[in-house]
Amino acid sequence: VKPENGCTWPPAMSADSVATWEGAERIIQTALDTFGRIDCVVNNAAVLRDTIFHKIIARQIPANIVYEDEHLIAFRDISPQAPVHVLFVPKVTIPTLNDVQPGQAEIVGRLVIAAADYAKTQGFAEDGYRIVMNCNDHGGQTVFQIHLHLLAGAPLGRFG
Ligand code: AMP
Fold this sequence. Notes:
Layout: E1 7-9, H1 15-19, H2 24-35, E2 40-42, E3 45-48, H3 52-57, E4 65-68, E5 72-76, E6 84-90, H4 105-122, E7 129-132, H5 136-139, E8 148-152
Antiparallel strand pairs: 1-3, 2-3, 4-5, 5-6, 6-8, 7-8
Residues 52, 63, 75, 77-79, 87, 134, 140-143 line the site of adenosine monophosphate.
């Protein structure tokens, strides 16, 4: 659990203090009523791990969405690094690649297949593209909900 990647409810209380506050059931119900969901429960505190991508999924902030299904959403990167730069994000909360569980292989696989499908439907599959997933500090990850970058639209130069 990485509370620094999200927040506990009620705000400004540590998970430990919440446990002795009013009773876990009421706290969790309040969080559910307020936010519509909780991501996990730690020491009887409801923990929400909202990132900017969760807010895009929930339509709380706008994005240029190019694809969505029940499992994932894809939208244009706000700061494109290539003529085509689309992010593919699962709807299940997974902060980093280190948090992917063995039973979640399909979630990651769906991101890859959705990106390849997008490349085919947009007509640049044959020319080619690059997919990138960053993890933590050294990987340059800045949003702590896993996502796959699809970069295309021009020769991207050698990498790796
Ligand atoms: P990473 O550095 O791998 O975590 O990638 C995060 C990406 O999200 C960066 O390329 C950002 O430009 C992009 N990004 C951040 N905020 C938004 C947003 N509101 N809409 C679209 N893309 C965003």
